[in-house]
Specification:
Blueprint lengths: L1 H15 L13 H12 L7 E6 L3 H4 L2 H7 L4 H8 L3 E3 L2 E3 L12 H9 L2 H8 L5 H6 L2 E5 L2 E6 L2 H17 L11 E4 L4 E3 L2 E8 L2 E8 L1 H16 L6 H19 L5 H22 L5 H8 L11 E5 L5 E5 L26 H14 L1 H13 L18 E4 L14 E4 L1 H10 L9 H7 L1
Antiparallel strand pairs: 1-5, 1-6, 2-3, 4-5, 7-8, 8-9, 10-11, 12-13
Helix pairs in contact: 1-6, 10-11, 10-12, 14-15
Length: 441
């Protein structure tokens, strides 16, 4: 039932959301929030003070009365969801406040609760006026984590913070006094696992966003624990367990200044793996262990290698992924006013999808599959799609109307043909698969 109601509530939440809110929203991610920090702080004429905001137990303390009065849902069923309670160790716990974490609809409801904070600050500090422009107040929020920039410490403590506290008090929330602090940009602050800091060296100023020390230590602690507890696993099985963790962490940080940290993390993982191999072969010399697990492979001579058996007992060699081998790429932030439910933004989101597809191996495979499925022809003009002509991926059933990103719902079109489809309302049909036709023949 919550999933069904969310289908109707999410477009409303997306339309009324704060422009610089990036948590639990379609097409937005932590990378957008970090890039928003870069835009707000990178230049020398930008704000130098930051209010690091942390809401105390946000999901657990939202006022039920405020939710019932302001969330555009059927009041009777919303009250039932809020008052349903939960079971823990076979004991029932009543819920007199807050919305349950893990509920399908809870992220959208929590976002709508905090929406309006950016507009409140913009009203008190309008950028079009001289005083508001000098204040340099900007809000970047990801779910219940947020930061506010300002021109001075006094401005943030005496004017901005009281406004935020009053805004939250109306919703039954409050700031955490321990975690809500005002920091200078030269000291740096942690936000979403990244450290944002500006360095002054003489007359020169450099601005860096790097993986935070706390995040790196937590990741390495987790990897080392996993390696230490894997005494009974083979090298291939250990690699199969570690690779998703390493790949996911590295992909998360690949949009910031992380190359040096990637090398340091690689070295730390290598040391942990080396200890694991030495424990398994205490009586073997170091050269024997090196040749067995770390064969000389040119530039990747210290890549951990093992053998893994597949589902059909097919033996294959697997290697531990090196974080430093990933390419560091600058991220392009989504436009603040973009709405995935608005048909006017359909082509914009499709272009962003094309860029993300080309950047990943999986995406390139999808492009190759779609191109071969169409025999390399555009379904609109029946002309060849090449690198020179370019291409756009088009959703047969638009995403704004509920279409999926699966290959069954997508075709490749020339950019001009794609523009005609959207401007003239042309209906595109999925071409008959040449691959399937040849297979049946």
């Amino acid at each position: 039932m919550q999933a069904l109601y969310l289908l109707a509530l999410d477009p409303v939440a997306e339309t009324t959301a704060d422009p610089n809110s990036y948590g639990f929203r379609r097409g937005r991610s932590t990378a957008d929030a970090i890039e928003a920090c870069f835009i707000a702080l990178c230049r020398n004429d930008r704000a130098e003070w930051i209010l690091e905001g942390d809401i105390r137990s946000c999901f657990d303390r939202i006022s039920h009365e405020w939710l019932v009065a302001h969330i555009p849902l059927e009041k009777v069923i919303l009250k039932k969801w809020l008052k349903a309670g939960y079971l823990e160790n076979h004991h029932f716990h009543a819920t007199e406040e807050g919305t349950p974490q893990g509920g399908i609809i809870s992220p959208a409801v929590a976002n709508m609760t905090l929406d309006g904070l950016e507009q409140l600050l913009a009203t008190h500090f309008p950028k079009k006026e001289r005083a508001g422009g000098r204040a340099k107040v900007n809000l970047i929020r990801y779910a219940d984590d947020f930061c506010v920039t300002g021109n001075s410490k006094e401005l943030l403590e005496q004017e901005v913070k009281p406004l935020i506290e009053q805004f939250l008090r109306e919703r039954g929330l409050e700031l955490s006094t321990e975690k809500t602090v005002v920091t200078h940009i030269e000291q740096g602050f942690d936000f979403l696992g990244q450290t944002v800091r500006k360095y002054r060296r003489g007359k020169r100023t450099k601005f860096f966003i790097t993986p935070s020390k706390k995040n790196v230590k937590a990741f390495l602690r987790k990897i080392r624990k996993r390696i230490k507890e894997s005494r009974d696993l083979t090298a291939g099985e250990l690699i199969a367990e570690l690779n998703p963790e390493i790949r996911g962490w590295a992909l998360y940080h690949r949009h910031v200044v992380s190359k040096a940290i990637f090398h340091a993390v690689d070295h730390a993982i290598f040391q942990a793996i080396w200890k694991w191999t030495r424990r398994r072969h205490r009586r073997k010399p170091r050269r024997w262990v090196k040749d067995k697990y770390f064969p000389d492979n040119g530039p990747n001579r210290w890549v951990f290698t093992g053998i893994l058996k597949g589902e059909e007992e097919r033996v294959k060699v697997v290697r531990l992924l090196a974080a430093s081998s990933l390419r560091i790429e600058r991220y392009t932030k989504i436009k603040a006013s973009a709405n995935p439910y608005d048909p006017a933004w359909e082509t914009y989101f499709e272009k962003r999808l094309d860029v993300s597809m080309e950047a990943r191996l999986k995406g390139r495979r999808w492009l190759s599959h779609l191109w071969r499925e169409q025999n390399g022809l555009c379904p609109v003009c029946q002309q060849k799609i090449t690198k020179i002509t370019g291409w756009h991926s088009h959703h047969i059933l638009w995403r704004s109307k509920g279409g999926s990103d699966s290959t069954e719902n997508r075709v490749l079109l020339h950019p001009t043909c794609h523009q005609q489809v959207h401007s003239q309302g042309i209906t595109v049909e999925k071409p008959r698969s040449v691959i399937r036709a040849e297979g049946k023949a």
